[in-house]
């Protein structure tokens, strides 16, 4: 498909003078951001909370207003389909759950842009050859339940629904109970039939596009993700009376692990990133050497071999630290996904269409996890990135210029149209 495809002969929606509506796109982004509002203008809609339910209700209302068929599956994924044409749908979408300090664009853009594409085509009287669907996938963030991308993973059959329903949240809630409680334990089949193709519009969430002055990212894949929770058990004691030589201090070891993660990321360089995002101490008091510490490790790389190597060095280091301090350490895997390569034909199509829209474009991997990486297991998939100002995300200051949002959504429209009118053989590279 890629550059050899004569999509210029295809009469794309943009060639017929159609553009998505900036006002509608921004209006919906604004309206969704008012649900779960937090200081600084972002939102907190942790998965399957009341705020997430309210956000879902709003999106479902939009879908129904557009006349889409709305299906909700057993893990709470919402799929809105414009049931026209024949065959399996071209799907887009993303998520509307957020981290606790979420911005206005992460995930929301992909869902709202999908609706915007459909509304624009409908208003123009253009009917694609295949159905078009917009997916809203459950718990993409992985902030409340692990693993991340959980809804899309179950959607493609990567985890059995029954076991996922027992997942315990960071606040002790059970996923299946929460789905029932908010009214999103649906009956549509999950796993579901594979779409014809999947394309997700998302903000980059990193600094590269802005730094290089490029307007669109044609995403080649997603780096591997390794999440674990480490629990350190030591000896709680008096902070004033316990000699330093007699301590078995979990807080100290948690700090050593965090420092080691920074060191090893620096040592490997390249795409290696390591983060300690959460540390809980018990009893968490100023004058008590803690009894225990629990921390999370987020380790990512585009190269699976290097990622394994780094994971193994971290494991060795943790064992050494445990012995030296006389504490016991256990760990549990919260998520582990290998790097994913997107379908080169779909990425090439995005690149060509960005050029056609007179936007500068570059191929790039994604540093963040995305639902598209799960859909890539079952159908040709790729992503369109728009620049993030100062590369800030998972932060209320997350921002993307309107011009970039509009261009990204117009490119999404043409990409979905082209995918609906092209036949192609899925390429390998899917994991
Ligand atoms: C999802 O936002 C991630 O952590 O990559
Ligand atoms: Mn996201
Ligand atoms: Mn995110």
UniProtKB/TrEMBL annotation:
Signal peptide: none annotated. GO terms for molecular function: hydrolase activity, acting on carbon-nitrogen (but not peptide) bonds, in linear amidines. InterPro entries: Amidase_Cbmase, Bact_exopeptidase_dim_dom, Peptidase_M20, Peptidase_M20_dimer. Keywords: Hydrolase. The keyword Cell cycle does not apply. Gene3D superfamilies: 3.30.70.360, Zn peptidases. Residues 221-321 form the Peptidase M20 dimerisation domain. This is Unannotated protein. It comes from freshwater metagenome.
